[in-house]
Amino acid sequence: MSGDPKPGRPHPLGASPADGGVNFSVWARNAARVELLFFDRAEDPRPSRVLALDPLRHRTYHYWHALVPGVSPGQRYGWRATGPFDPRRGLRFDGQKLLLDPYGRAVVIPPGYDREAAARPGDNAGTAMKSAVVDLSAYDWEGDEPLRRPFSKTVIYELHVRGFTRHPSSGLPEQRRGTYAGLVEKIPHLQALGVNAVELMPVFAFDRYDAPAGRVNYWGYSPVAFFAPHPAYAAAQGPLAAIDEFRDMVKALHRAGIEVILDVVYNHTAEGDERGPTLSFRGLDNVAYYILDKDWSRYSNYTGCGNTLKAAHPVVRRLISDSLRYWVGEMHVDGFRFDLASVLSRDEAGQALSNPPIVWQIESDPLLAGSKLIAEAWDAAGLYQVGHWVGDAWKEWNGRFRDDVRAFLRGDPGTVNRFADRLFASPDLYAAGGHQAEQSVNFVTCHDGFTLADLVTYEHKRNEGNGEGNRDGNDDNRAWNCGAEGPSDDPRVLALRARQIRNFITVNLLSAGVPMLSMGDEVGRSQGGNNNAYCQDNEVSWLDWTLAEKNADLLRFARKAVGLRVAFDPSEPTREVTLAEFLVRSKVEWHGVRLGAPDWSEGSRSLAVGFSALDGSVRLHCIFNAWTEPLQFELPPSEEGWRLLVDTALPPPDDTRGWDEALRVEGRMYLAQAHSVVMLGTG
Questions:
Q1: Are 645 and 656 in contact (CB under 8 A)?
Q2: Distance CA 228, CA 225 (A)
Q3: What is the pLDDT of residue 392?
C-alpha cells in the first residue's frame, strides 16, 4: 500500500478494486469526521495506516469516499466515525470504535474478539471484527447459473451449515466438519433423499456471542454484515476463504440439481438495544438504520432481539436490495427466506404499511426475477400476515399448516375441516387473493421447535440446558408423546411413534403447496426435547450420522415418499409431473368411511379424499385415520384395481412402495389402522 489517497467516488459503496487501488465508500450523514483504518492482521491492536478523510476532497453529500492506491484483495480494514453522542436525538457516534463496512464483502474475526469491548468506553481495535477487501472477478464459475426451478417442482430441505456435518460421526476430517466444504461432501445424502433445494439457516456473518452470558448464538440470527458469508463456516484459512468456499458449495449443489435458498435476516442486527455494542450501523447513522422509540434514546423492539432495522428508510431499503442483488448476481444463490419478514412492512415509526416499498422493490427488481422469495410473514410484536402478505411473486411459510396438521394427526376434535384446507394449500388463507397453490410453504417442523422425533416423544419442552429455567421456547407445540413422556422401551409406544413420524412426512409431501423438510427428520434426529436450541452448538443440535443406519427404515420411507412427490405420474414418466401439479389439476371428491359421505363434525377424526386426472388416466385415494381404533373405508370402484403406495401402519418395506413395486389391493374395503395414513393409486 503506497501513495496518497485520491478523492475516489461515492459509488459503489463498500470496497471496490479500481484504477490500481481500491475505492472505499461509506454513508455517514451526521458524522463530523471519518477515518479509514488498515490492519496487517485481524488481532492487531493498532492500525498499520490511518487515513483521515478530508470532507472537502473525500465527501459527496452524505458519502465519504477515497481511492487508495496499492491496496490488494485480503487487506483488512475498518471505519471510524466521529460525531455527536446525543441519544435523545438518536445520535450515538463513538469515534473510538472500529466499525465494519456495511457493504463489506468479507469479515475477519480476530481470535480475541470481544463483543463487550464494543459496548464499553475506549478503543477496541484489537478485539473488533474487520472487513476485508475482495476482488470478485477472480473466481471461475465454470458456466454456473441459478437453476430457476419452479416452486411446483420444489422440495425444500432446511439445514444448518455447521450442524449438518459438525458431529464426529459425519466421517469428515476435523477441519472440514461444520463447513461449506463439509456440506459439499454430504450432497450424495441430499440427492438420495430426493430433495432439490436446501434452505440454509443464516450464513451472513454474525456475532456468535450475541447471546446471554455463558451461551453462544448457534443459529446465526444475529447479523453483522449483509454481504459477507460467515467466516467460521469456512474450512480454509485466510480473510477471503469463506468467499470462494461458499461459491464452491453453491456450484457443487447446482451441479447436483439442488437449489440454494438463504435464510436472511433483514429485521435486526447484532448491535442489540441501547446497552449493546457499536459494531457498524449504530456508529455510522443510528437514526437511519434503526426504528427508535418516541424519545429516540431507546430502540423499538419488534423482533425480540433488541432492535429493529428501519426497512422503510431509503438507505436501508437500498442496503437490503443491494445485498439481495449481490447474493444472486455474484454468489449465484437461487432464493431467500426472509426471517420475521413482517418487519419489512413497518414504516419508520414502526406502524404497519399496506404496501411496504421494500417488498415491492424486491419483487420488481429484474435481477431478482425468477429468484425464490419466501416470507416468514410475522414478527415478534404480533404483526401476523400469513395469508395477507403483499406481492405477487412471494410465497409464505405457513405456520397454520404446522399447527393444524399436528392437531389433526394427534386426534384433536374439531380439526378435520382445517386439516382439509391444509391439504389443499390453505384456500381459506390464500384463495381470496387469487394465489396459486405454491403460495403455501408447508412444514411440520423447522429449526424453531421440536424435531419430528421429539414431536412424538415429548409433550413438554425440555429447555433446561439453555439456562433460562425452561421459560424460553414455545409452550404451544401440539405434540403427543404417544403414551409415554420421553424415551421409552415399550414396543407399542415405539411403534406408534414410528407411525406418527411417517404420517407427518406423508401428509407434508402429499399436500398441495411447497413441502419443506427439516434437517435430520428423515433419520429421527432428536434434541432431547429442547424446542429452542438456539444456543446449543453441540451434539444437541448436530446431526448424528449414525442415525442413518440405526433408522434405515425411516430413511428409506422418507426417500420413497419424496420420490412419489417429485416424479409422480406413472403414465407419463417423461413429463416429470410432480404430485403437487397433479393435485391442483385433478377432480377432487371427499369421502368418509363411506364413499361420498365425509364426516365434517366436531367429533370427526378421519377423512378420505379422491383425486382423478381430468382425462381419467390416474387416480389417487388417500385415507387419514386419526382415531384410536381401526376403521374400514369403502374404496371407489376401479377397473385396473388399486395399488398400495403408502400405509404407515405396515412394517417396512410395505409401508411405502413406488408405482412400479406397489402391492395390489383386493376388495372394495380397506382397513386403516389407528393413527395411520394410507395412499392408494391406480393408472
A1: yes
A2: 6
A3: 87
pLDDT over 70 at 574, yes or no: no
The CA distance from 337 to 2, in Å, is 43
The single residue of 339, 404, 421, 647 carrying the catalytic annotation is 339
433: Cβ contacts below 8 Å, ≥ 6 apart: 387, 388, 439
Q: Which amino acid is at 429?
A: L
Which single residue is written with the C-alpha cell 404496501?
355
As a whole number of angstroms, the distance between CA 535 and CA 542 comes to: 12
Alpha-carbon gap, residue 588 to 164, rounded angstroms: 40
d(CA 534, CA 531): 9
**Residues paired with 326 in a beta bridge:** none
Domain boundaries, the chain: 14-138, 579-682
Say if CB 406 and CB 425 are below 8 A apart.
Answer: no
How much is the average pLDDT of 583-588? Answer: 84
Distance set, CA 132 to CA 25, 106, 607 (Å): 14, 5, 59
Q: Which listed residue (101, 376, 421, 522) is catalytic? A: 376
User: Are the folds of 14-138 and 579-682 the same?
Assistant: yes
* β-pair type (106-108, 259-264): unpaired
Q: Which amino acid is at 667?
A: G
CATH topology of domain 14-138: Immunoglobulin-like (2.60.40)
- How confident is the prediction for the chain on average, in pLDDT? 95
Asked whether 245 and 235 are in contact (CB, 8 A), the reply is yes
Predicted local confidence at residue 438, as pLDDT: 81
Q: Known catalytic residue: 376?
A: yes
Task: Name the pLDDT band for 613 (thresholds 50, 70, 90).
Answer: confident
Q: Identify the sign of the CA torsion 13, 14, 17, 23.
A: positive
Q: Does residue 142 have an active-site annotation?
A: no
Q: What angle do CA 23, 27, 30 make, to 5 degrees?
A: 135
pLDDT digits (tens, 9 = 90+) for 276-321: 999 999 999 999 999 999 999 999 999 999 999 999 999 999 999 9
Buried/exposed 377-415: b ≥16 CB within 10 Å, e otherwise: bbbbbebebbbebbbeebbbbbebbbbbbbbbbbebeeb
Cβ atoms within 10 Å of 671's Cβ, excluding its own: 15
The pairing of beta strand 395-397 with beta strand 440-442: parallel
Lowest mean pLDDT across 190-194, 468-472, 565-569: 565-569
How many Å apart are CA 566 and CA 155, to the nearest integer?
A: 8
Q: What is the pLDDT of residues 129-172, one digit of tens each?
A: 999 999 999 899 999 999 999 999 999 999 999 999 999 999 99
Grid cell locating 525: 434426529
Q: Which CATH architecture has domain 579-682?
A: Sandwich (2.60)
Please report, for the chain, how many H helices and E strands are present, in that order. Answer: 15, 27
Chain mean position to CA 212: 23
Q: Would you say 77 and 10 are in contact if contact means Cβ atoms under 8 Å apart? A: no
